Amino acid sequence: MERLQKIIASAGITSRRKAEKLIEDGKVQVNGETVTELGKKADAAKDTILVDGVPLQKESPVYYVLYKPSGVISSAKDEAGRKTVVDYIDTDKRVYPVGRLDYDTSGIIILTNDGEFANTLMHPKYQVEKAYLAKVEGIPSRQLIKKLQNGIVIDDQKTAPAFAKVRKTDQRKGTSLVELVIHEGRNRQVRKMFDAIGHPVIKLRRERYGILDTKGLNAGEYRELKPHEVKKLRDSAVT
């Protein structure tokens, strides 16, 4: 017997967090009974589980890494008809992105149908690092870089300690390239952190997610993860 949201996530329907929302919204049935409590357990092998009226069938897990271009939605679908990261993946499996990258941010993003794997990578408590390269207005002082490293208040909450370093400056254009490594994933966090120190982001790219980077990929290209990469990503999570 396992928690219902875990069973749904493992079946490749969606992430565990979104599975919890489906349960709370009354869109999940077990043996003909609508379930709205998150603590409900079921037997995937014996019980009849419906999600939005569709019987649950477990898919074999797949894992992809995509170099997301700027101007693409980090979602499985978009009501406005805009291009999403899923549109780049040629597969018959129901994959979805692990976390999000802003519409105007490019870089590495993982897609999978393995909900437990996705939850492990996304949850802040597992401290999976995400490295960004930001082109920002102006040239941040050492004191301001130190603020980013120590944590800075955005949306009334202090960010966790981070790695931050100025990689390059352009005195003529008045811009800088700053590397920022975080393990949180709040909404537009990187941009808000730079706004908070008075150096707004001009351009942003996520260069690394855990052990994965964009080497060998151009914007819009993807590849399937190797088994040892999936294992390393799991093992890199701090439990």
From TrEMBL:
Residues 2-60 form the RNA-binding S4 domain. InterPro entries: PsdUridine_s_RsuA/RluB/E/F_cat (IPR042092), PsdUridine_synth_cat_dom_sf (IPR020103), PsdUridine_synth_RsuA/RluA (IPR006145), PsdUridine_synth_RsuA/RluB/E/F (IPR000748), PsdUridine_synth_RsuA/RluB_CS (IPR018496), RsuA_PseudoU_synthase (IPR050343), S4_RNA-bd (IPR002942), S4_RNA-bd_sf (IPR036986). GO terms for cellular component: cytosol. The keyword RNA-binding applies. GO terms for molecular function: RNA binding; rRNA pseudouridine synthase activity. Gene3D superfamilies: Alpha-L RNA-binding motif, Pseudouridine synthase I, catalytic domain, N-terminal subdomain, RNA-binding S4 domain. Its EC number is 5.4.99.-. It holds the Pfam family S4. Keywords: Isomerase, RNA-binding. The keyword RNA-binding applies. One of its GO terms (biological process) is enzyme-directed rRNA pseudouridine synthesis. PANTHER family: PSEUDOURIDINE SYNTHASE FAMILY PROTEIN-RELATED (PTHR47683), RNA-BINDING S4 DOMAIN-CONTAINING PROTEIN (PTHR47683:SF2). Belongs to the pseudouridine synthase RsuA family. This is Pseudouridine synthase. It comes from Alkalicoccus luteus.
